Fold each of these.
Amino acid sequence: MKYEAVIGLEIHIQLNSATKMFCDCANTPGDDPNTNICPVCLWMPGALPVLSREVLEKATLACLALSCDIQNESAFDQKVYYYPDLPKGFQLSQAHKPLARNGWVEIQDEEGKPKKLHLHHVHMEEDVAKLVHETEGRIPISLVDFNRAGTPLIEVVTEPELKSPYDAMEFLKAVRNQVRYTGCADCSMESGTMRCDANISIRPEGSDQLNTKVEVKNMNSIHHVGDAIAYEIKRQIDCINSGEIILLHTRLWDPEKHVTVAMRAKFEGPCIPDPSVSEIVLTETWLEEIKSILPEMPAQKVKRFVKDYSLIHDEAVLMSSERKLSEFFESVVKLGAQTRMAASWIATQLLPALKVHDQTLADSVVTPERFAGLIKMLEKNEINSNSAKSVLEKLFDTDKTPEEIVEKFGFRQVSDTTELEKIVDKIISDNTSAVNNYKNGNKKSIGFLVGQAMKVSHGKANPKIIQELIRKRLS
Amino acid sequence: MKSEIFTYLNASSPTLMDGPMSGISVAIEPNISVKNWPTNAQSIALENYVALEDSTLVERLRNAGATLKGRTSMSELGLGLNNDTGGDAIKNELSDVVLKTDTTGETRMAAAVCECFGFKPSYGIVSRLGMIGLVPSMESCGILSDSLQTISETACIMAGSDKPDSSIDESGIDRAISGFKKPEKLQDRHISAGIIREWDTGKSKEFEQAMTILRKAGIQIEKISIKDFSLARTVHNVIGTVEASSSAGRFDSVRYGHRTSGSVKNWNDMYIKSRSESFGPLVKAYLFQGGYFQYKKYNTFLDACRIRACLIESINKAFETVDIIVLPVSVRAEASAEKPDTVTDLYDSFSLTLLANLTGNPSISIPGPVNVNGGRPAVQLIGQRFDDAHLLTIAEHISKIFTGAM
């Protein structure tokens, strides 16, 4: 029998608010252990939680970016279980009345066709502390770092409608891009600010039943998610084929061995409404305010870039793929650079150069002003593209403007005809065989002659004018 | 006597701050945080715990010039009245005021035992920050005193908004405070008191006599309906234990409190051993029931929440026609016998006081008319939520009727 997979994802995203969710402690879990703690996040006797307004705003923005229906009323529940990293004996989460329901993101399926994947809901919850296991002499000890306790998370829960590891990976990228765009979260699986658990079951192809699922955790990159799901689907099919029964349980992905390993029976603890955090009631005015600060999302941006800047679709997609990139592109264009030339130079020259210099658009010495200056000179034929590449390289080494660099290093393109004619004269007399070839009908050899002329001019000659002059002289 | 009533006496010199509470001594149960005072809530779970900060209500009293006297003894984590000495401190005139958490009616019952006044303010006007309780949605800081005037002054100082406490009701506070600030004159006013139709007054001869006295004094007594009144006890039991089970989750021995000194195999073992050494039998039974409703009977809990909402609706409706609701504090002959050992005992004792905890209404226990034994079985008055001052004014009036002063 042929089987198909049913996959649902639960994605935890750490919000980058200044403070934790229910207290004023800094939301910087990586600081020295137990430096960002207070009676609330340590849950000392008599402490009371108060939901941070900034966290609520950022969570709402993220939900809007995922096209969710924001709920006018939502509330916190207590997810009860005991673990040393959980100070309260319960986790404040939103099981019964989440902040947002529904929602979707669009991916391209394996044939390149657009496909919508739907969310069940998005809720807020607090993160737990971090356990550190060490030894004191020969005695194993466990330490708890509460810096992370109470930091804000949103959990994105999909409908069980993903079909393949490919779907899952594309979905994660789409969610990451959308949420990153809001500026509310970093969404890095590698550094743990985005974490993904996958629920996987299989069923006979074409069936609509939902069978017992297995939960897989511990994937630290989007690729691991794909690999773990692929492995798990195969494992479950093998199980069924050898007559075994799939049990509801949790497995861990082992990235070294490329297998999933059974961890424990899936635990569903009690979940009851929390009496201390007040219910969240959103007003229409507040929600409108949040909607107004939601930045333009990539899909709209692509349309606008095509319409306003005459980019072709793929260029627009590329320039919209990250918010910082799209902002850089627009700044450069607003400074007067030609749009498609700017897009293509950002994509093919600037981004690779940034990688080499270990800089990002946000912190790079190549500001939109300097980059636009470079493109404008290129556009006006003041420099040719070879020189432009050299100028770009120099932009990283000095704080001079591109115009100053061109002057100082003599990159200015030579377009003065009298000067160029001298070069052409020399090339024609030095390369008789190529000249004869051309005259005998081999038009391709003009390329060789132009190349020679560029060499003589040390790359500064305007290649278009050179070609024009040679053609005229040999006709 | 003194040393038995107080578990801790404030050694530092009395506060010199001048204010409305100057000269008034206040004893505080050990579950209400006072900076640098032992604050163990009378539980091994918090043995040797010393509060880091004042609770908001203590800070307000301190700033108003109150003399913070020391700690009285209480029942473990505020459930019931075992080992309670709050009332004794008033009876023996060792303190003007005792502050005591009221979760099922403890303040009012303690007052009944010691024949003083016991007041539970409206839920949501006094900050709970720094109060260590088990049932966040029902507990209020109650006030014991033999002077209604002092209770009124103390409540007025304690009430006020507090950002960290989300259960504070801002508009309710405004209403309550303006009530305290403008005391009303009752002379020309006609007072109506409601008796709950669903509760059989015949269960208490003394209560019937008290009502006769009130009627004769011109107070209109009428029947009002609190539908589902008979379920209130069960509703409190279900919701109270569920909340308590979660609230006690903090006592896990990881960050503070009692950790077992015995050897443990793993975390779970550490939890189980530490927690079984931490709690007494009543608290254990209470938490266990809560765990059961959380885990196995969640729908029962939801039903209880719905009935609670109906009870609030009924009581609000009743206050459209009456000023106060009257009930006995206890139906037992001897209020001093209220020392529960089991959860059933607890709810048997507090079956009439817990309604106000469920609905958040202010409620006060006042000594009733003298009976044949020379005792003064207490009468409980319940007021409209946030009309605390109005309730206290009526309590003053009724108290005078009972003592024959009017």
Amino acid sequence: MSHESDARLSRLLRADAPAERDALFRISLIERRERQLYRRRMQVGVAVTAVLLVLPAAVLALGDPLAVAMVGGLGLAVLAAGAGSFRGVRHATRWLRGG
Amino acid sequence: MEQEDAELLAAVCEGSRRAFNLLVDRHQQAVRNFLRRVVGRADADDVAQETFLAVWTQARTYRGGAAVRSWIFAIAWRKAKDLQRSWFRRRRRDAQFIESGAQSAGHGGEEEVLLAQVLHTLSLEQRAAIMLCLGHGLTNEEAAEALAMPLGTVKSHVNRGRERLREVLGE
């Protein structure tokens, strides 16, 4: 009796369960994961850029133009990489949505 | 199954997206069902996604003591409790929890409505213990570990919850 009753309760408690396979759930999870990865990359990018903006100012204060140019170039490369990853994530998101 | 889960989790640690997708396919139904009953339909999928993202980022923290399924439920439970801490969301969820009971009624009939109503009268901890032990077949020990509660507390939640459900469902 108790066993049957527990089985019935178990069945009722699981009656509200979603489908065993749910492509939409998985796709939105992948999308969310990509967004999270992108956010982390951006945070690192912003931190690096901030450092690279402070460095030229410091080097400039020391009066070495070559060093300023090198550090500035590096900063631009970091910004370009950040922009590239942003476009990549947007493309991936669109593709996942079937667009 | 359990060994395969552990192997998949080890592969996730190495960055395997395929292994991660397989883990999601295996456990999403149980985790989402657990969360639907614990926090309500409106927030369940959001919390489930946060849970699986945590599985992805925290796979290295799995020590192998508990079953992978219990470990995933433990993460889901922590996320559910985090949600509970927000007062505004709790108010909204309470309203939606009742509404989701009404939605279930369309699919499962009177028993489903009664079940949803009774679950709503129980505490978050009781609902979680009942779902893990009665809904998903975890042992009391596994549930105690997943919910980070003393074994006696889990047993008490399950026994009282079971009695209450039987009473309302007319057994």
